[in-house]
Amino acid sequence: MNVAKNILSVFEGQLCEIYSSKMPRLSQTKMALDVADFLYNSSKNTMFVEAPVGVGKTLGVLIPALINQMENTNKITGITYATATISLQNQIMFEDVPNICKIKPTILKTTKPDRLRAFLAMGSEHSLCRSQFEKNYKKIEKKIDSEKMEILDNFVKNSHTGLRSELSSTFGLDVSNDVWSLMNIHSRYCHNILCRGHEYREKYSRRFALTVTNHSQFIASAKSIIVSKTSDEMQVSVKNRIIIIDEAHDFQENFLSSLEEQLTLNEINRAIKYTNKQLLAEIRTSFKRLKENANSEKSVSILSDTHILFNQFKQLKSNIMDVEIENNAFKYGYDEYGRYDELLGKITNILRSDEYTVWYSAEDQNIHYAPKNFKQRLRSFLKELSDHNKVIIMSGTLTMNGAKEELTNDWYIESSEFEYKKYVTTFDWGKQIYFYAPQDINAKTGNDLTKRNHHISQIINLFQNTLCAVPGGALILTTSLNYMNKVYDGLSKMNIDRQIIKQGQLSQSKIIENFKKDTTSILVGSGSYFTGFSVKGRALQHVLLTRLPNPTPDNPFFKLKLEGVDGDLEKRNVQNLIMYKKLEQAIGRLIRDQSDFGLFTITDNRIMQHKNWLLSKKIIIHHSLDQLSAFFNDWESKKIKLNVPIFSEDKLSIPSIIRDESAFVIKSKQISSVKRLTYNEDNVKQRYDLLKTMPGFDKKYVPNFETEFDSAMSLAYQQKKMDKDMNEVFWSKFPDLTPQEKTKIENEVFTAI
C-alpha cells in the first residue's frame, strides 16, 4: 500500500463525502502528509505543528497516526491524545471519532461493530462515585426536584462511564457544580463494587487504539511511568505510543501545575495548635494582611525571602524540630506527629528561596511554591517522553513569527531534535472580523479601585451600545475572575432582554450547549474560555476582550520563564509571546468557519502598541463603529469573497513513505506468539445462568456482559456469597483482565461480603 496515496484518497474523497464539502482543505491535507512523513521517515521523535483555527488539525494528525499504528502493530500500542480543555476532548470523542470510523477500510480498530477502541480518560472530578452519592443522598435531594432525582438514580445505576458528560448527553440532565461535588470522586477507592465511575477509571491503563485524555492526567502518567518507572491502574498509556499534545499553548502552565505544591493556613493550624499559640496568631495575621492587600487583577503576590512570613516560617521550623526531639508521637499521637513531619517538609522547601519561587494566591488564599528549575524539568520530561514515543506537539499559536528558533527558546529543545511545520490559515481575518479598538478606554488601572470600577463601567456601557448592531450571541472574555464577576453583575442589573450566562454556573459542556441553542445569549467567562471553545455561526458574532492578556510580574509562570533570561528585549519577547498566544486564542473564538463573521472589541487602548502584530495577521483596526452596519450588510448580502488557499495536488509536497525496520525508531515491543483465549460473553452468561439456580443467589448484582471487568466483579460476588473459590477455571473466563484488576476484584468482593 502506498501510504501517501492512501492518505490523499481519504482527504480528497471520503472526508469530503462525510463532511459534505466540495473539496478538501489544502492545509489539512498538507499537514496529514507531513505527519505521515514524520512518523514513517524521520529519525527525529518530536514534531511541532503550528496549525491555526480552521485547518482541521485533529483529523490532520489522527488519520495518518491511525494508519501508522495499524501498520506498526508490533512496534507501537496506539495513540494517546492529550488536550487542555474538556470541550475538545468531547469534540474528539463524540464528533471526530464517529466520523473517522466511517472511513473505509477501517483505520480505527473495533472489537465489535458497535464498540470503538477509543477511550475517554478524564480527571476524577468528572467521574461519579456511588459511595459519595449514597452518603450525600439527602443533601442532593434538597437541591433538586424529584424528577431530576429519579434521573440521577437511573444514571448512578445504569451509566456506562459514570462521567458527568454522559449524565448530560445520554440522560439529558445537567446538575450544578455544587450538586455534582456531592457525588463525584473524592478518593481513589469506593466501597461499592458497582460504582460505575471507579469501574470506568480502572480501564485507564489499558492500551486502547486511541486514548483521549487531558494534559494533567497525561503529565502525571508520564512522570510516573516513564520518569519514576512506576505503574498504576489509574494512569493512561504513555509508552511505545504516538503521543499527540494538542492545545500546546497551555501545556507548559499545566506542567508547572504538576510541579506546584501548596501550604494552607489550616495545615499550620492543625500542626501547631498545641505548641505555640502566639506564633500561630502572628501567622494568621500575616495571611490576613496578604488577603487584604491582594491585587485582584494579578491574583497572586510573589513572596521574597524578606517577607515577614519567611521569618515566621523559620521560627515555626525551629519549633517543629524541637517538638520532634521531644518525641511528639508519644505526647500527642502518631497522627499529630505525621502532621508535624509533613509541615516541616513544606516549610523547608519554602525557605529555600534559591531553589523555589513562592507566592500567595488570592483565589484560594494559600501559599504556593514551585521549583525554579522549571525549564530543566520541562526539557528533561520532553526528552524522556520522546525516548519512548513519537511525540507531536501542536497548537494554532506556538510562535510569534513562525521561526524554528522561537520554539528552541520557548521549549528548551535544540533545533536539531525536532521537526517543525507551520500552516497557513484557511480564514481571512481582515474580511471576516470588524476589529474595534476604542482609543479612549484606559485599562491600565493598577491597584486603583476607582480606576478599575470606571473601566468596568466603560466596558458595560460600550457593550450595551453594541447589542442592537450585532444580532447574534456574544462572548465577553475577562483576564480575571474579579472582572468576570463584576461585568456579569453589572449586565444583570441592566434591562437587557437576553439570556446572560456566567462561567461556573453549570458544567462547561452544558453552558456551551445552552449558548449554542439561544443565538442571542451573552456569555461572560475567563480562563478556559480563551481556548477550546468552538461556536460557529450566528450563536457567536461578538467577542469582547476586556484588556490585553499581559502576564504580570507576579505571574509565577512568567517569573519562572524569565529565570536565566538577560536583557530587557529578551524579557519583553518572553512576555509578548505569552500575551500574543492568548490574544490570538481570544480572537480565534469569533471565527470558526469560512462563513463566520462578526465584531471583535478590545477595551484596552494599549492594543495600538501591538499594531504591527495585528497587521501581520491581516487585521484591519477600527476606532469607531461607523462602518459596522455596512460590514454586516455586506456579509448578509453575500458580497464578501475571501482570499483563502484553494486545494490542488500541485501545491502539495507528497512524501515517499518507505516502510521498513528503520522507518519507526522506537524499539519494537515483543509480542508473544502464544495464542490467547479471548473474552467470551456466551461462556460467562452460561456460568451466570448456572449460579442463578443455586441457593444464595442475589438478583440485584446483574452483570453487564459486554464489559469484562463488570462481568467478573458480579460473578465473583456471587461465587463468594455461595462459598465458591475464584480459582483458575473462574479466571479463565476473563482472559484479558490485568493482575491489578483481578486483585481489585478479590479485595472488593472480600470487603463487600
Q: Which strand-content bin applies to the residues?
A: 5-15%
Shape: globular
Structural class, judged by helices and strands? alpha/beta
Separation of the first and last Cα atoms: 56 Å
Give the number of DSSP strands.
Answer: 20
Write down the overall mean pLDDT.
86
The poorly predicted ranges are 111-115, 661-676
* Side-by-side strand order of the widest sheet: 5-6-2-7-12-1-13
- The number of helical runs is 31
What share of the residues lie within helices? 40-55%
Which radius of gyration do the C-alpha atoms yield? 28 Å
Structure description:
With 753 residues, this protein is an alpha/beta fold. The chain is 46% helix and 11% strand. Strands 5-6-2-7-12-1-13 form a 7-stranded parallel β-sheet, with helices on both faces. Strand 10 (356-361) and strand 11 form a beta hairpin. The model is unreliable at 111-115 and 661-676 (pLDDT under 50).
Helix and strand layout, with pairings?
Layout: H1 3-18, H2 26-41, E1 46-50, H3 57-71, E2 79-83, H4 86-100, E3 110-112, E4 115-116, E5 118-120, H5 130-135, H6 137-143, H7 146-158, H8 164-169, H9 177-180, H10 196-201, E6 210-214, H11 215-227, E7 242-245, H12 251-259, E8 261-263, H13 265-272, H14 277-293, E9 300-303, H15 308-325, H16 328-332, H17 334-350, E10 356-361, E11 366-371, H18 374-388, E12 390-395, H19 404-411, E13 418-422, H20 429-432, E14 433-436, H21 449-466, E15 474-478, H22 481-493, E16 500-502, H23 508-517, E17 522-526, E18 542-545, H24 556-561, H25 568-588, E19 598-602, H26 611-616, E20 621-622, H27 628-636, H28 681-692, H29 708-721, H30 728-731, H31 739-752
Parallel strand pairs: 1-12, 1-13, 2-6, 2-7, 5-6, 7-12, 14-19, 14-20, 15-17, 15-18, 16-17, 18-19
Antiparallel strand pairs: 3-4, 8-11, 9-10, 10-11
Helix pairs in contact: 1-2, 2-3, 11-12, 11-18, 13-14, 13-17, 14-15, 15-17, 21-22, 28-29, 29-31
